[in-house]
Amino acid sequence: MTLIYNPRQVVLVSCRGNVQIMNRMMERDEVLPLSWHSPSASHPPMYSIFVQKNLGGAEMIKESGVFVVNFVPFRVVEHARKAMSVSGEYVDKLEAIGLHELPCEKLVDCFRLKEALGWLECEVVEHKEVGDHVLFLGKVVHSFMGVDDKRPFHVDGDEFATTK
Ligand SMILES: Cc1cc2nc3c(=O)[nH]c(=O)nc-3n(C[C@H](O)[C@H](O)[C@H](O)COP(=O)(O)O)c2cc1C
User: Fold this and answer.
1) Is residue 4 part of a domain?
2) Is residue 69 assigned to a domain?
3) What CATH number corresponds to the domain at position 111?
4) 16 lines ligand 1 (CB under 6 A)
5) Which residue from 75, 70, 63 is spatially nearest to 32, judged by alpha carbons?
6) Looking at ligand 1, which residue's alpha carbon is closest to its atom 29?
7) pTM of the entire structure?
């Protein structure tokens, strides 16, 4: 059954952090497809994301205090699907799903996606557990919007739609 609040735009959130892999701490880059996200204030610009609290990405964002919201074109849905089936624990997730990273303009402990139409670089000002998710409220320290294109919207399960 389709959820009442779908379809929702899918973004790819990028983050970087240390994870424990076989008793060793290693730096990993993570990409999370998210449909639960929202602008939260205009002055100063703020943006919120909601991440399942058991995801490695939630720990990485807590630890680094930063994340990037990448707004992607519809064709990137295929990469988002792959991001669900590839765990970043043993492989380079970005390489495995065929996306490419670029340095941020302002943030040091994060990266952005080359495939993005635009992006928001955010510093966490607050995080709060909300049931099974963590709300990260981010202050937007840099934003960029390039040429626009059709965006991906999650409808239900494996179904995605786009704008005209
Ligand atoms: C279309 C779509 C939307 C999603 N939206 C969210 C979301 O808003 N919040 C969230 O925590 N997970 C969401 N997920 C699931 C996470 O992206 C997924 O659990 C994560 O990529 C798993 O990564 P890992 O196994 O490397 O930890 C969504 C997945 C898809 C495909």
Assistant:
1) no
2) yes
3) 2.30.110.10
4) no
5) 70
6) 33
7) 0.95
